[in-house]
Amino acid sequence: MQIIIWSVLIIVNVSLIFLLLKLYLNSERMSKYKNDHQVIIARKIIHFWFVFALYFFLFVLAALFIFPVVWMIMNSFKTHAQINADLSTWRTFLPTNLNIGEWFQSYIKLFSSFQEFGRSIINSIIYSSITISIVLLINSLAGYAIAKFRFPGSTVIVTIIILILIIPVETSIVPLYVILKKMGLLTENLRIVGYLIPGFCSPFYIFMFRAYFLGIPKELEEAAYIDGASRIKTFFSIIIPNSLPVFATVSIFTFMGTWNEYIFAQLMFSNPLQQPLQVYLQLINNFNPKDMGMIMASLTFSTIPIALVYIFSQRYIVEGVAFTGLK
Amino acid sequence: MKNFKLLLLLLILTVFVTFVSGCKGGEEEEDGVKLIKIWVHKSEAEDEGKTYLAIQDNFNDLELTTTDGTLVRMRIEFKNSADTLQTAINAEVLAGGLPDIVALDSPNVAAYVDAGILTNVDTYMTQAEIDDFVDSAIEQGTIDNKIYALFAMDAPVGLYYNKTLLQQASIEPGTLENPWSWNDLFDAMTTLKDEGLTYKFKGNLGFGGDEGAMYLYSSLIYSAGGLFVGPNGLVSGYLDSEESVNGLKVVERIFELDSADSEPWLYNGVNTDALAAGEVAFEMYGPWGINSIKKNYPEFATQYDIMPVPVYEDNLGVKGSLVGGCGSWGFGITTAATNTEAAAIALKYLTGADSSELLYQSIGTFPTHESVLENNISFQSGPLKSLADILINASSPRPILVNYPKLTLAFSKIIAYIEANSGTEDYDLLNYIQTQIYSVDN
Amino acid sequence: MNQAKIQRANIRFFGKSYNKSEIFAGLLFTLPVLILGVIFIILPIIVSLGYAFTDANLLKLDQVQIVGFSQFSRIFSDPLLLIAFKNTLRFVVTVVPLQLTLSLVLALILNSRIKLNTFFRWAFFIPVMLSLAITSMLWMNLLNEESGLINSILMSLGFDEQTFLSNPDRALNIIIIISAWQGAGYQMLIFLSGLKNIPSSLYEAAEIDGANSFNRFKHVTLPMIKPTFSFVIITMLIGAFRLFTQPLIMTKGGPLDSTMTMSYYIYQQGIMFRDVGYSSAVALIYTIFLAAITLTIRKVLDKDNTV
After folding, report:
1. Partners for B (CB, 8 Å, 3+ pairs)?
2. Global confidence as pTM
């Protein structure tokens, strides 16, 4: 502990001294000495120091950011006993031994003790797929309509959409639940419909689509009309093929939203066969007696799909923000 | 266009798969057979879940029938946890999807009856059957003199103590006839400490989530002559009555002792078997400790015993009544059951003497049938007998009121408040109690 | 080109002329979204409004009685609600500057020519890949007072065993830090893309005009990322007011209600305590509050935005 305090103090003090020194060297009085050998060396040292400090800071910060995840992954390769043994040493961030055969014990135990775990992953995949399909369909249509068509009531509709945007989801959970119940969408079989349906309409994506469609030159559509295509046909044959980036982005965002959703899912799904991944993880986390290896294995395994999506679609995520009309 | 078609195909496929897999298999409603669906709050992987499966199989083997000859079969459905069970019930009420029998924690009975979810079952029971149950078990499920729920397991609370240590320090343990008061407990701890022996107390406040405080320590209020709730269903005027507050103040002393000393008096470690391991001298717990000690520290079995929960003692040394906590999970017939007689047959077996004994053997909960308690050898001596006596003679279930979830949360917060703030400047117990009462009554 | 082929059936409506097929298509295209949005997002608010005047109970929704304004007056005398609001407010005003500064500073650093740029970008982004639920569960185990990594590290450094989520004074701060940890990487990426969009010609022009690095930052960088900045701050602010998942999984409202947030309170009253009437009243007031904040912030920051 003392080491840390002392090193922090030293770094801070040296930095301050160097900063002062640099300002001094930059000042008027010293400018005539600017090209002196010693001054140049001094400046190089100061520069090097600051670069060093910056990298040091970045590395420390990066370590702080990733150590929990590293720990999670490493622990997924250990058994509960091994985790406890390694905990107070530096080995906690490394595999217990190099015997790769042992590494997957927690995973095996996970899948055999919790038979519905695989099922919950499939559930998440299914829920996400359905949601993505419908979200893409209806929100793009709406976005296109408010981008391109002039019709009476369009301003009213846009206002309604903005209104929907403003309403926070969390405060509506209870009345939404009641509405679904009265509509009969809470019974065992229709519960999935009841769960997914509120997520289909998304003003955020509507505006994303709109912004993108506004950028499509009118000539493309005119050409289609001239050839006798109806508006619907134009949409599907001309607009969509030319808008793949925004469709990709919305798909990815929707996937992330549905896959990670927790609050509404834990409220709706009491049958383990229907529970999506995030909800089922709770069961593993709260199971008594606690098996840390299994817990970490389940968390790690659950992060893989979404990590893959992030890795392969980074570009779309960042560009997606631009689609909201930032410019 | 091609992309769209692909997307549409994917959509149809996924919807199809979902419905096919999400749909439950059709009910096996053959003629002449009534399948009783039962929701339990455990998962199949847990010991309790496995026990329910065994009970189900035993019942189905018996091939019991109703008066008109319909064969009754049980089917257990696992809801994995108390929360998920609650979610399921919330969703299916008024939607007609409730099962025939549903598991419930004793404090929920009032709310469910109030909501019209449960059907009373006393009309299907003989007096002998009712009498075989321990008094507290019947009490837990009775509202307005009708029985709505039956309990196969109970969990009486007792004060575990290290017999050997007390003998070494020449301390007389409390008994049913002459129970300790909390002052006696503190004095005993002091004596042990002075003699250099283990003296700590394991309170298990975190046990059972928010429910722990109410389950283990409701006796604080009752023993001091206070009540949680009045006949008007309100907590105000009862939880903050002088008697109740006196009862609560008892714990101030131990928290103050705990924080004043550099070495804590309360055990704050994580070892479930701290008593057997010699880390504490006293522990407030339910019956699960007995099984745990038998399994993990068998040689400790003769060195401990269980005494009744400490009673209140006022400034003049007058001791309050002996009241222990108890209460556990049981089952009730829902109003959605189409054949109540069949459901009652299933329910009676599910909570009957045989099941009671099976549950005791597998998870260590207490049987609720006097026939079991009197005939099973295990209950004739040792800590089991002590706890059985406590259950039969001195236990009272948790308060019955519709707003129980709020009350239990409030009580556990009050205890937590005392623990955190007692002895500090901002400590204002009465005010805090008032805020909690407000949240319960409204 | 034969323009006559294009159908132009004009309809006059309130003085403007519309194309018949355009009207049809416009309404048709927006219909699904409108139906779903109105039923499942707007209707709940109206239902809230309805239930807010009743004593509805979750298990007895068919026996509902009107109680006038009593639920609303209860809001004003409810100490727990006040605590929930204060906690939420405290969370918002702490996490937003924290996460904002962190992500902006990191973006600025990584935007300059630093070696290992990609490594750092990914390092800071990794927490974003965990969902809120997984983040909560992971940190619960990390912060476990007996068997968690944090305490074992602290103890090996010579500290005493610390309390985290069971400590009423600390629990909310911990949730703040965890939330910032999880979200900073994402905002960092957004800022990075905003920074990259600043044409370098502007910087060159500034340099020619004799601006040093500090002035370049002040007069080129800051104004040019204003739209990005507004977007980030709005989304962060609204998200922070809706804090729910972390308290739900990690602390269930926290030791002595220290992590009770508004969303959690609404949920607790409605689902756990089954008091739909009161929950609706609180939800209604809170939604109006949030809507007001959203609109105000948008107006203040977004003067020339299309959305």
Report:
1. A, C
2. 0.83
